[in-house]
Amino acid sequence: MLQTKDAVNSTSIKKAIEGRDGAMLSGFYADDAVVRVIDRNNPPSKPREIRGKASISTFWDDICGRAMSHKIESSVTEGDRLAFTENCAYPDGTKVYCATVVELKNGRIARQTVVQAWDE
Question: What is the pLDDT of residue 6?
Answer without folding.
Answer: 64
